[in-house]
Amino acid sequence: MRIAIDAMGGDAAPDINIQGAIEAAKEWGDVHIILVGDEKRLAPALNGAPSNLSIQHASEVVLPDDEPVRAVRRKKDASMVVAGRLVKEGAADAMISAGNTGALMATGLLVVGRMEGIERPALAPMIPTMDGKGTLALDLGANMDASPQHLMQYAIMGSIYRQKVHGLERPRVGLLNVGTEEMKGNELTKAAFPLLSEAPIHFVGNVESRDVLQGNCDVLVCDGFVGNILLKTMEGTAGTIFSVLKQEFTSSLLSKLAAAVLKPGLSRFKKKLDYKEHGGAPLLGLNGLVLKSHGSSDAKAIKNAVRQAREALKNDLVVSISSEISRK
Fold this sequence. Notes:
Elements: E1 2-6, H1 15-27, E2 32-37, H2 39-42, E3 53-57, H3 68-74, H4 79-88, E4 94-97, H5 101-112, E5 122-123, E6 126-127, E7 135-138, H6 148-166, E8 172-177, H7 187-198, E9 202-208, E10 219-221, H8 224-249, H9 253-272, E11 280-284, E12 289-293, H10 299-314, H11 317-326
Parallel strand pairs: 1-2, 1-4, 2-3, 4-12, 7-10, 8-9, 8-10
Antiparallel strand pairs: 5-11, 6-7, 11-12
Helix pairs in contact: 1-10, 3-5, 4-5, 6-7, 6-11
């Protein structure tokens, strides 16, 4: 299986992408990794690298502040666009990028192409949970608005993803809402509830945001506007908690001693909330596998994104979603 990595995308590109790719290539010999980017910058770092790693030259870069659609249409030789084209043309089976999120969505739609039967692809990152299993949440930002039909498609795609990539036999699918009762919510969630009840999924009903971190569902469905607010609120809250803890545990000699005792437990807690453990968020509903890594990903996150893509490819994720959607 061939996985293209947008080597020039991300806050610390291309160094962390190269390092993560090398680590992944060493770990999985059945994967051929294609680093897409400026060959002059990439080649020197690959001396002595595994043979299952190669370079595809791309002369341009999509910048963080580029307007997404314009960048994808005008920068034909940008590393992100070239990686998408490799997937479209069958030269790669999947692509990973830590670059401009909007541009990656545009690349998915304009270059890779939308899956037949899917009206809108969905961005589906993992939200960490206290049981360590995580919740796949979609859509968390690809589309600000959604219809009840879109939410049903998100639910089906998310359920298949957790089956194929994470090995869950019967993923529990929840609908994000302001209450657990069936008739709670706005017009969108009220109309979506019966559709999800009849879909070929294990629908467990409405889920409140306060319960998400407890792992009360395996797939969380919502529109992109609400989902993106949920995600950023959680990220901000987690960051604030660790910042306050650091201040408190360094405020006096006694607190420093207490911190030394509690450090192993705090490290485990922080690991549970660390996006790097999951690697990337799939953009589900495309004609190929596209993964979005966090902009501040390190080498570990890139390696885990490769692992994630590898599992999805081994289990025919895209074909499985397409087959299920075509039956609807």
